[in-house]
């Protein structure tokens, strides 16, 4: 038996790669070309093979380390083992063990209880638990991942130092861990003892096992069984086999690893599996199908409509399809609430109609929209919690120091939302002209992509059609949208008598994660004040 170094082979042009998974431990027997550890470059995950058959002496790297071609990652005692679980020498050991008095020792005598502590975290402290990889009652091998933690710079799995059964989880997702904290309590299988799930067969009389040199095989079959089903897609909540880098990609893309079939060795999930799964789910959405593991909402199965009468099918336009997908995404992701109010625009309308002659000279028609734009811009400045976006991945609020407002335009092709920039810095006539130009571009399908991006808030109006109120859908990542219905004359009490006033219905839908109900009421109240007396816009 000779000890030799395990070196990183040619990496196919990659300069430096990250170790994302260690597949063996010191003392493991491996065959030549058996995978030792997994590394990941920007383009692919690669398993580094054993250079010879033998026994692993030591592994000198850890998950997260960077390695290059020629680096030593461990040692192997070549010729010390064949790497096969069914080698004759091992079978002889099994037979010898059956003949030894140790087979009569109760199962409990081969185990002990241990509390697993958090090892060194490479200088990190108070790192949050982002995933529990085991549950109480699970059986684990040494180096199986127990929990996954994430620092500012890396995602790490904390492995089990022992083989045994998880008795009690001492942490939960979201807990912050430091070196030395308790992770789990577990029953550890002593060397030479039996794992808890194998204790029942071990208690049988030796004679009942077998009388040939192949007696060890039946005892190992339960351990091999999971490998036979590892290529099947696991059920939701099941334990999955994936490295930290793959888990991070899955979190970033919103993929549930328990629903992904692994194509790597022993069913391990690699990055390409996650990307392929996301691609399939997107194709389902675009084709109108249901997405498994997404919102959990089943698709609506359509009947054969032709059995009821004559039908005609028409392909959805790209704009119609994009609008449908955006509306569904926004409705499913944003917890909507709508605040309703009325604004007295009697004086505003009187003033607006008085601008008709000036508008004809300028060649611009003064509609109620410029007044709404200016009022909303002032309300956004007064209540900046409406001028934000939520970054749920980073758990941050993005505050915007600009006020761009989208205006929904009804066109023959579908709904389009051009954006007017810096509304707070423009006058009424300028806003009237720009709104008219953008609406014309929308109807003529001449809007550029840049002219429909960057909105902080959206106004959608049905006032020219009718209705008393509605619930507009927030255009995420914005957090609010204002719906305008048709103004109507209503009797309003002035303290002494009812007066006929022109009342404009306001419907403010908002993302309740970012905005609370009291602020929504303040927003519509402020709008009503500004629209009720436009002189407030000058203050």
What do these coordinates show?
Among the domains are: 77 residues, OB fold (Dihydrolipoamide Acetyltransferase, E2P) (Beta Barrel); 210 residues, Chloramphenicol acetyltransferase-like domain (Chloramphenicol Acetyltransferase, 2-Layer Sandwich). It contains 11 helices and 27 strands. The strands form 7 sheets. Strands 17, 20, 23, 24, 25, 26 and 27 form a 7-stranded mixed sheet that branches. It has a 4-stranded antiparallel sheet with strand order 1-8-6-3, with no helix packed on it. The radius of gyration is 34 Å and the shape is elongated.
Contiguous uncertain segments of 5+ residues = 81-109, 192-232, 290-294
Portion in strands: 25-35%
CATH topology of the domain at 329-538: Chloramphenicol Acetyltransferase
- Gross morphology is elongated
Cα-to-Cα separation, first versus last residue: 90 Å
List how many beta strands DSSP finds. Answer: 27
Q: What top-tier CATH class of the domain at 329-538 fits best?
A: Alpha Beta
The percent of residues in helical segments reads 10-25%
Main β sheet profile: 7 strands, mixed
What structural class do the secondary elements suggest?
alpha+beta
Mean pLDDT: 81
CATH architecture of the domain at 329-538: 2-Layer Sandwich
Which quaternary structure do these chains form? single chain
* Gyration radius over CA: 34 Å
What is the CATH H-level superfamily of the domain at 329-538?
Chloramphenicol acetyltransferase-like domain
The DSSP helix count reads: 11
């Amino acid at each position: 038996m000779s000890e030799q170094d395990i070196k990183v082979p040619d990496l196919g042009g990659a300069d430096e790669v990250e170790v994302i998974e260690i597949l063996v431990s010191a003392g493991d027997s491996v065959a030549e070309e058996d995978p030792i550890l997994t590394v990941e470059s920007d383009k692919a995950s690669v398993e580094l093979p054993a250079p010879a058959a033998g026994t692993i002496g030591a592994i000198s790297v850890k998950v997260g380390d960077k390695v290059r071609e020629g680096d030593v990652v461990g040692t192997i005692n070549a010729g010390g083992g064949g790497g096969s679980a069914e080698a004759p020498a091992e079978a002889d050991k099994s037979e010898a063990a059956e003949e030894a008095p140790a087979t009569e020792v109760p199962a409990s005598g081969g185990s002990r209880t241990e509390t697993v502590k958090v090892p060194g975290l490479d200088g990190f402290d108070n790192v949050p638990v982002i995933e529990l990889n085991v549950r109480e009652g699970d059986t684990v091998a040494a180096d199986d991942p127990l929990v996954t933690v994430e620092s500012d710079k890396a995602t790490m799995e904390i492995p089990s130092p022992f083989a045994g059964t998880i008795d009690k989880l001492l942490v939960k997702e979201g807990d912050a861990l430091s070196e030395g904290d308790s992770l789990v309590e577990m029953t550890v299988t002593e060397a030479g003892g039996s794992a808890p799930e194998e204790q029942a067969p071990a208690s049988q009389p030796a004679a009942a096992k077998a009388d040939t040199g192949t007696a060890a095989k039946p005892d190992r079959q339960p351990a091999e069984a999971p490998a036979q089903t590892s290529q099947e897609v696991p059920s939701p909540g099941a334990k999955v086999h994936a490295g930290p880098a793959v888990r991070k990609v899955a979190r970033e893309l919103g993929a549930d690893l328990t629903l992904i079939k692994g194509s790597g060795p022993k069913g391990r999930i690699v990055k390409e599996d996650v990307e392929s799964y996301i691609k399939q789910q997107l194709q389902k959405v675009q084709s109108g199908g249901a997405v498994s593991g997404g919102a959990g909402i089943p698709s609506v199965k359509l009947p054969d409509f032709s059995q009821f009468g004559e039908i005609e099918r028409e392909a959805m336009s790209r704009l119609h399809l994009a609008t449908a997908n955006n509306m569904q995404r926004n409705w499913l992701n944003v917890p909507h609430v709508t605040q309703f109010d009325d604004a007295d625009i009697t004086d505003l309308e009187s003033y607006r109609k008085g601008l008709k002659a000036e508008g004809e000279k300028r060649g611009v028609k003064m509609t109620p929209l410029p007044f709404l734009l200016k009022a909303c811009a002032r309300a956004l400045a007064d209540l900046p919690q409406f001028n934000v976006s939520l970054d749920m991945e980073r758990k941050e609020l993005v505050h915007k120091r600009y006020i761009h407002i989208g205006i929904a335009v009804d066109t023959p092709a579908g709904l389009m939302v051009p954006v007017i920039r810096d509304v707070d810095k423009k006058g009424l006539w300028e806003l009237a002209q720009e709104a008219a130009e953008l609406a014309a571009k929308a109807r003529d399908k001449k809007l550029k992509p840049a002219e429909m991006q960057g909105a902080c808030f959206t106004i959608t109006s049905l006032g020219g059609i009718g209705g008393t109120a509605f619930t507009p859908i927030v255009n995420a990542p914005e957090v609010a949208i204002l719906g305008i219905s048709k103004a109507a004359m209503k009797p309003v009490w002035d303290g002494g008598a009812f007066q006929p006033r022109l009342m404009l219905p306001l419907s403010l839908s908002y993302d309740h994660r970012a905005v609370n109900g009291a602020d929504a009421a303040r927003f519509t109240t402020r709008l009503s004040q500004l629209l009720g007396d436009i002189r407030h816009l000058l203050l």
